[in-house]
Every structure is written in structure tokens, then in C-alpha cells.
Amino acid sequence: MKKQWWHDKVAYQIYPKSFMDANGDGIGDIQGILSKLDYLKDLGIDILWLSPIYQSPFVDQGYDISDYYKIGEEFGTMEEFDRLLEETKKRDMYLVMDLVVNHCSDRHEWFQKALKDPYGPYGDYFYFRKGKDGKAPSNYRSYFGGSTWEPVPGTDLYYLHFFAKEQPDLNWENPKLRREIYKMINWWLDKGLAGFRIDAIINIKKDINFPSYEPDGEDGLVHCTKMVENVEGVDEFLEEMKRETFQKHHSFTVGEVFNMKKGALEEFIGEQGHFSTIFDFSAHELGHGKHGWYDSKPVEFKEWRKTLFASQLEAQGIGFKANIIENHDEARGASRYLPDYARNEKGKKLLATTTLLLRGIPFLYQGQEIGMTNWECPDISLYDDLNTKDQYQEALKAGLTKEEALQVCHDNSRDNARTPMQWSSRENAGFTSGRPWLCVNPNYREINVEEQEGREDSVLAYYKKLISLRKSEEFRETFTYGNFVPAYEDTESVFAYYRVSENGKKVLVAANYGKEPVTLEIQGEPEKILLSNAQRESTLAKEIRNKGTITLESCEGAVLSLR
Ligand code: GLC
Ligand code: CA
């Protein structure tokens, strides 16, 4: 496999609005990020991905962009952004931005012009279609609920939006539009950006006949991904974009790709693939309900392990996946993948051990490194996220009580991850001196950076150890390129694997998610305990020496090198 600069890096997602507010308006900003760069460097982070900071009306929290060339006023100025670029480079870090080009904002100049003249040149930047028999052109349901087709007042036309109606989809069939997008991408890369996280990108290819399908719900609609799954040809767009932009700059790209066709992984992340990597969402999809959040189910350990193993083995020999336990669209990993009895610091370290040493590029999400958890929002009106509001209604429609519907949001809301970063136990978690745009999770008094920085056995301290082990001179090669080999699969409560590299090094990562202790027979010749989430290195080492076994208590994990 040809080596690339990003293969051995550790990435971190910043959700700028909730990261750090420097000017007291309750909204995180670029100055805030600047003030925390040393914190991130110290944690061991190389690549920073910023969720959108472009100009936006924030209907979907910046994923609705009204000017791709402007920094949103809330976040700061272009000069401040340039400084951020400079300061990350000074620290040998790489800055990656969000690329949202399946759609733009309805306030974007292109769309405003298109509305005025749907048959004119800008009309062709979007999908305007005539209705059928007084109804929408087809029966697709958007990601955020309701039809994907919005009527244009005073005409017989509708426009297409896969997400909110304020996020009209861009017409990638139009070469002029594609050129505009490539120009914009290159403009940012020329500035010195290291690459992009690429939003919702699988959706850019449409079946322009917009056929209706068999409804999959009582609303008579079918999820718009049905069409995405049926249409061919997204590869040509992705290849052209890569050729015209990323390839020339040797950029790092990570795709947000759902609904990929079977067997297409190589086209996406192979050596000649469309992207450097794509997120591994296989574990997230496990809990998804058939109809929505209200029928989602808790992730079951054995299924989770099986899924991740399969995903690891699938990528091996093809390329790298980007491994996550959470992001700005998901519940917190610690509240999702850990059984009740493991929802504590030991369990959070266990989860970190398991997931950070997998084969692939680890992405941490802000707050994960201190073990931030889901937010028990006391009232539906306090949520900001449009998806949450829609799913709450769906839950009520399906017959759930208000309390039950709120519980569904507690478990699934995107706002779980969007509450402000918990820096300290001071007011508003030290995030802002003003009024935060979204409630702070009240558990900031116990869970915060300041407290953990002062404590050697904190989750934060453990993340640092883990990252530095992953990147250590001795094991970097093994954790980056080493093969993933499942281990102890017949031990029910254990998530274990080897990383085996060509240079002969072998490491065992073993984690006991069960309630009871387990004893594992060590295969091969043990060398040393590299890490224990329970600070039991010496006890474990002794047992291995004396008996050739390792006994892991409930929620205990260890990393062991073998000869
Ligand atoms: C992606 C983003 C999400 C956004 C959506 C529409 O899934 O991660 O936050 O709402 O795309 O842009
Ligand atoms: Ca601010």
C-alpha cells in the first residue's frame, strides 16, 4: 500500500458553535478555537476538522451555506481564519473544513436568482420540476421529514430538497455548477487547507426522471435514499471532483457516505479511490429504527463486536476507514455503546482502548476525550435541532406519550453532542461568559477538562496515553499498517484483536465488557503490558509471567505486546 501523509494521524472534530466562545455572545468562534490549539496539540491531535463556519442562516446549523467564500460573522473574520491556518501549521497540525455541496442555503445568491427566473441560467443550478396532477413531482420523503419537493409560489413548479426546505439540492448534472464548486474548493486549498470532510456526498447523483416508488410509510412517501440506491453514476462526479481539486493538492478527504452500493468500497477508499477515507458508520446503523428514532434500539454488545470486526476486515487490504464513536449528528458514544454498569470512567477508557487502536484513522469528537455524555433535556422546547423536533413529532404520531417521545430524544438527539464543550466547573462550563446558544449539560460540574487535567487517572489523561502509544516510535507502524486480526471471539463478553505488522510486531488489545471477570490464555510470547485502563499494569504483568493468562475484571481492558 502506498503510504500517505494522513495514514498515521489522529483527527479531532470541532463543532465550532459549541467549542469555545471568546467574545461572550454565547456562540463559539475562531478566537475560541485559537485559544485551545495547545490543548489539542497536547492531547496528540494532528488533523482538525471544523464543522461549517461559512456564512449561513443556520437553519441546519451551518450545513446550509449562503456564501462559500465567507466566514460566518458569528465565528469571526477571514483574517482570523487565516491566523488559525497559520497557527495550526506552526504546531504541525492540519486544518480540514466541511464541504457541503449536495445543497446550499435558500439564501444563497444562486438560489435567489433561480427563484426569480427558474427557466434562466441559475434555475439550472437546482432541480425545478412541474408537479403531477396537482401534486409533487414524486413521492420522496426528505431526511428531515415531509416531501422533498417544495412548491414555488405563483408557479406550477417545485424545487428539490433532500434535507430541509431551506437547503435546495444543487444540480450536479450542470457542468457550470460543477465548475463553480471546483473553483471554490481550489480557492480554499490554495489558501493552505489540508482537505475536507465531505458532507452527504452520495446524494449528489439524482435520477433526473425522479420516478416514484412504492411508499414505505403511512404518509404515502418513500425515503429519498431509495432513489440514491437505485441510480448509477455518482462515481463520475466524484472522480471529476477529485481530479479537478483534491488530487492536485494532495489533500486529505473524508467522505460522509451512507447507502454505498455493495462491493463499492474499493472505488471509494482504494488506492485510486474517490476519497482518502470514509467514516465507518456500521456501528451507528445498528441502533437505527425502521421508521425513525422512536423505534431505534439499544446497541447489543455481541452485535456491535461482530459489526466492527466485519467492517475492519472488509477495509483491510483495500484502504482506511475513519473510526468514530460519535459526531455532531449522533448520541454520545459513552451513552450508547456502554452497558449501564460501564457508564463510568473505567468504561469510557475501555471504549477508548477498543476503538482508538482499530485499523483506520481515529476521529475524536469534541468532549469525547473527557467522556461527555448525552443530555437529558428537560423540555422539548429547549432543543434546537430541526431533526429532533421532527422526530419528536413522529414519535407522538406513532402513539408514544410526551414523556416517551422526550426519552426518544434523550437517546437519539443530535443535540446530545452539540451542547457546549465542558471546560471547567465554572458557570456555563467555562464555555462562555454570556448565555450559551444551547443549554450546557448540567453534569459539567463533574465532567470537565479542568478537573481532569489535574488528575492522573482521568479519562483525559488516559486518552493522551492511548494516542501517544498509537503514535509512539515503537508501535506507530503496527497501529497504522498492522493487520487487524480478531481474537477470543468465542469469549462472549470480550472485544479483542491483534494488530500485526510486517516488521514482526504484534499487539493484543483486549477489553472485557462483561459484568464478570474473564481469564484469557495468552497465545504466543508475551512481552510487556503497554496499557491498562485500570492502572493494573504490574498485577497483570505478574499474572502473565506466572500463569500465562490474563484476568480482566469487569470493564477492564489491556494492551499487550507479544514477541
Ligand atoms: C450531514 C451533516 C448533518 C447535516 C446534513 C445536511 O449529514 O453531518 O449535520 O444536517 O448532512 O447537510
Ligand atoms: Ca462568540
UniProtKB/TrEMBL annotation:
Gene3D superfamilies the UniProt entry points to: Glycosidases, Golgi alpha-mannosidase II, Oligo-1,6-glucosidase, Domain 2
UniProt protein name: Alpha-glucosidase
Example of a GO biological process term: oligosaccharide catabolic process
Assigned protein family: Belongs to the glycosyl hydrolase 13 family.
Pfam family for this entry, one: Alpha-amylase
MF annotations from Gene Ontology: alpha-amylase activity
Domain called Glycosyl hydrolase family 13 catalytic: residue spans: 13-418
Keyword Hydrolase: yes
Keyword line: Glycosidase, Hydrolase
Species annotation: Candidatus Choladousia intestinavium
